[in-house]
Specification:
The structure is a single chain. The chain is α+β, with helices and mostly antiparallel strands. It folds into 2 domains: 4-118, Electron Transport, Fmn-binding Protein, Chain A (Pnp Oxidase, Chain A, Roll); 127-202, Methane Monooxygenase Hydroxylase, Chain G, domain 1 (Up-down Bundle). The protein is built from 6 helices and 8 strands, in the order βββαβαββββαααα. It has helices at 41-48, 61-66, 127-139, 147-164, 167-184, 190-203, and strands at 4-12, 18-28, 31-34, 51-57, 75-77, 84-86, 89-101, 108-118. The strands form 2 sheets. It has a 6-stranded antiparallel barrel with strand order 1-2-3-8-7-4. It has a two-stranded antiparallel ribbon with strand order 5-6. Strand 5 and strand 6 form a beta hairpin. Helix 3 (127-139) packs antiparallel against helix 4, helix 3 runs parallel beside helix 5 and helix 4 packs across helix 6. It is globular, with a radius of gyration of 19 Å. The N and C termini lie far apart (46 Å).
């Protein structure tokens, strides 16, 4: 399997309207491939203007927000291409599409790096942020998975949220939990149960 980098991809329509969406960039040699499913504004934008930008967000709420209907995040102009990048990011990369593999379901756009820049220091990985990322991806596949599978995955991911999340990560998780609960038709919240279990374990520990 190829290396896939989870990013925030931005494209512009011919009229200049921004489309912001989480996307996995597929590494192929020195290039990266976007493979959106039809129908997609990303496809329409790339066909009209073959450039895109990929940003690595500092705030994981951008990813959770994009899959839960919250796509209004600050952006600034790109440096070399017609486009915009996420304002609050560790870094961004600008790409020009060099070729397209046409497909009725999922065309592939090969991007050649035009420019890249770092904007903030990356100090370390966080388990809760990784859990939000996985939960966000899971939330886009609810129609494909059995409810028991969804709940099992969410319960496991909630452990990292309970132990290592900051306020932003918890808010991002809450958005995804709301989406999952609405799909499953339940008012239960996994994180509340996980927090309660953690607190119960802690109450029995002496230092």
């Amino acid at each position: 399997m190829p290396l896939i980098l989870e990013t925030i991809v931005t494209t512009l329509s011919p009229e200049g309207a921004l489309h912001l969406v989480p996307f996995g960039l597929i590494a192929e040699g020195d290039d990266y491939v976007l493979a959106p499913f039809r129908p997609s504004p990303t496809i329409l934008n790339l066909d009209a203007d073959p450039y895109f930008c990929a940003s690595s967000p500092r705030d994981v709420r951008v990813i959770a927000g994009a899959v839960t209907g919250r796509r209004e995040w600050p952006t600034v102009a790109c440096d070399r291409i017609r486009g915009r990048r996420l304002a609050d990011s560790f870094g961004h990369a600008e790409f020009a599409v060099t070729s397209v593999e046409a497909d009725a379901t999922r065309p592939r756009y090969r991007g050649r790096l035009v420019h890249a820049a770092a904007h903030a220091p990356f100090i370390g990985y966080n388990r809760a942020q990784a859990a939000v990322l996985e939960a966000a991806i899971l939330s886009t596949r609810l129609h494909m998975l059995a409810p028991d599978k969804v709940m099992a995955e969410m319960r496991y991911l909630a452990i990292a949220i309970s132990k290592t999340a900051g306020p932003r990560e918890r808010e991002a998780w809450d958005w995804i939990e709301d989406k999952v609960a609405a799909h499953l038709g339940t008012e239960d919240r996994i994180l509340a149960d996980t927090d309660a279990a953690r607190d119960g374990e802690a109450s029995g520990v002496t230092c």
